[in-house]
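for the recovery benchmark. tokens below, seq after
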């Protein structure tokens, strides 16, 4: 399959000004050439754009621009053609059908990026960063994706692997050729500070890893409370749009309503839940059941109380239900007389109606999830659980190496732990990735990418 020439629509189907069709593989010019009425693609220079028509047996199908990229200087490191045609699903699908009839194969999800990885143009962290760029919903997540794409993670990992490889090589030489005078003589005591320095670097990267994951994935946030305390109003304010219906009728929201808010570079995946109370209404009961499930899965609870009403038994039950969750208690309706009569830890007073206190709430949310000031220029941030898991495995292997060294074990035993750390770091950049992992990763991409 790697030798096939593949084709796919790289833009979203629908009515638009332009669609782009990407074709890549060793036979790309033989496949596209007979369909293109314009310059001979075999003969044109690389990195050039050419005007002409896509034809079917000399019958014009569409007026197009064809971009030509020649191996290895293309996204896939293969000969590649991109056809810019008029927007609309019919034209794009018609051209794809002609390409397949000429011998191309419909590309699978992420197959262009997978070929870039398999052909050595990018590593696995850069491939993941391509997807992160597509899915970026804030300036921070876009900056993080760009850093991954340009190879910042790759460089940090390769530096660690080079240091480990030098250690392993020195140990092997000490064991096999102890008579060599120009090789640094090592023993368990000399190895320890080198291992500690490597471990400290990895721990510094891991200390920022959760920040990187949150920047990339956002925070699943549940807005909860009794009916008519202002949950839907809060959702609308944070989203900066009227997503939820707001009335003074209890039980207006009967199912979850979702949206994503950008708060200082942090994405909140907001879920406005049905008001939780005792109810005999079957439909409302279903909404309440779903709301409780959302609470279980949420990373942040925004628990809304009505400043204009005394605390109720339903409020107290919800406080107990969420006491072990990361939670902010929001005292809403401070534009009205205060009757709540209770103070809470980690609370923010707001008026969703007048937007008073919303800026303080946003600052509180951001402070809860970032371990310090975010400096994407200074630190290397891992961006997903796969990378973080492999980095933890490398740290564990180095901790084992230190224990082995402190136990005065032979150098070859320490080298086993160093090799385990080296392999774990290799998994991050894709040096030892299995087919199942690659299939799972690239299946998340859209067609044409």
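predicted aa per position
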């Amino acid at each position: 399959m790697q030798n096939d020439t593949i084709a796919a629509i790289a833009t979203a189907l629908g009515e638009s000004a332009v669609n782009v069709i990407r074709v890549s593989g060793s036979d790309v010019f033989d496949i596209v050439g007979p369909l293109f009425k314009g310059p001979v693609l075999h003969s044109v220079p690389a990195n050039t754009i050419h005007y002409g028509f896509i034809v079917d047996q000399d019958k014009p199908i569409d007026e197009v621009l064809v971009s030509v990229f020649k191996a290895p200087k293309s996204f896939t490191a293969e000969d590649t053609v991109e056809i810019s045609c008029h927007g609309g699903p019919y034209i794009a699908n018609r051209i794809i059908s002609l390409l397949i009839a000429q011998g191309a194969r419909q590309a699978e999800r992420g197959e262009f990026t997978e070929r870039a990885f398999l052909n050595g143009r990018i590593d696995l962290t850069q491939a993941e960063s391509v997807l992160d760029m597509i899915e970026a919903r804030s300036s921070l997540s876009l900056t993080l994706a760009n850093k991954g794409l340009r190879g910042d993670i790759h460089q940090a990992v390769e530096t660690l692997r080079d240091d480990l490889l030098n250690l392993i090589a020195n140990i092997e030489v000490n064991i096999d050729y102890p008579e060599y005078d120009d090789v640094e003589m090592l023993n368990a005591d000399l190895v320890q500070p080198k291992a500690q320095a490597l471990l400290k670097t990895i721990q510094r990267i891991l200390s920022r890893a959760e920040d990187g994951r949150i920047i990339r994935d956002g925070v699943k946030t549940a807005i909860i409370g009794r009916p008519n305390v202002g949950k839907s109003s809060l959702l609308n304010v944070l989203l900066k749009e009227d997503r939820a219906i707001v009335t003074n009728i209890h039980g207006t929201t009967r199912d979850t309503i979702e949206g994503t808010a950008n708060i200082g570079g942090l994405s909140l995946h907001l879920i406005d839940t049905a008001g939780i109370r005792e109810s005999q209404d079957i439909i409302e009961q279903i909404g309440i059941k779903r709301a409780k499930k959302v609470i279980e899965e949420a990373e942040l609870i925004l628990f809304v109380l009505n400043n204009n009403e005394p605390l109720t038994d339903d409020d107290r039950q919800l406080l107990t239900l969420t006491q072990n969750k990361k939670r902010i208690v929001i005292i809403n309706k401070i534009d009205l007389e205060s009757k709540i009569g209770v103070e809470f830890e980690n609370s923010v007073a707001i008026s969703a109606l007048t937007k008073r206190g919303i800026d303080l709430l946003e600052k509180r949310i951001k402070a809860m999830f970032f371990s310090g000031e975010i400096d994407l220029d200074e630190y290397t941030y891992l961006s997903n659980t796969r990378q973080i898991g492999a980095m933890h495995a490398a740290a564990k292997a180095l901790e084992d190496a230190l224990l082995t060294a402190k136990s005065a074990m032979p150098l070859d035993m320490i080298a086993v732990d160093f090799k385990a750390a080296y392999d774990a770091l290799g998994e991050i950049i894709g040096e030892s990735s299995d087919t199942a992992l690659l299939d799972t990763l690239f299946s998340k991409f859209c067609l044409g990418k």
